[in-house]
Write a structure and sequence with these properties.
alpha/beta; Rossmann fold; 4-stranded parallel sheet; 10 helices; 11% strand; globular; 255 residues
Amino acid sequence: MTHYSKRSLLVALFFLTGHFGLLNRASAKLLIVPELAQNSDVIFSRTPRTDNLGSSSWWRTKVKAQATANQGKKYNGCLFGDSISSGIGNTLGEHTFNFGMGGLSSVSLVEQLKFLKSAHVKCSKAIIAVGTNDAWYKISNDLFIKKMKQAILLVRAMRASQVTLIPAFYSTVAASHNQTIAGSIQRVEKINALMRQVAAIEQVPIKTKGLQVLFSHKGLREDLTFDGVHLNNNGKKVYRQVLLKILSTKPLIAP
């Protein structure tokens, strides 16, 4: 059995059973993480790779189901992002929806948005929070810029009159040195520089105020993460407050 087929079986197992965990990306062993099991949606992989979620049948089925469940719905605010954002859950106030999905990069975000647009989902305010996985995946600078522009165009086609970008998140300094877990600090910085270029061209803001507390010396604070990449409950509280200010909504759970 190939490495790829083993990984595919494990991924399928998680989606069928409803259990969530992490594959130890160094040994391919399963790690059940309590916080992750409560509210998460992460990608399972051992090495940096290109974003091929759009060609994966299980992922397309999941996105189609998400689009069908939200067919024709109109939201005051929508959050589009990766597992860091999906970990926030639907806690951003009434008439908002968190479309965050694990493993998402600018490439798969465009594919997700195409499904949602076809389902006539509408969002008055849109937050795009990708880039962290782009820094980890193998993606060229030109392709990242192209996909970010496409994502902004798509959310505008979904009636978003306000589009806000969230920069790529740093991992902890230790995690940033392990390419099986996260992108390097240098690559995160490059992705964010490219994002600023896109923001200037498309005339959309990048929200950084309030996020700085999550990081120290260009690394995610150890006390705000449970695995070096994803936010723990305290980290989520900080991130949630930033999102609430952008959407001008009240949380559905106590901050």
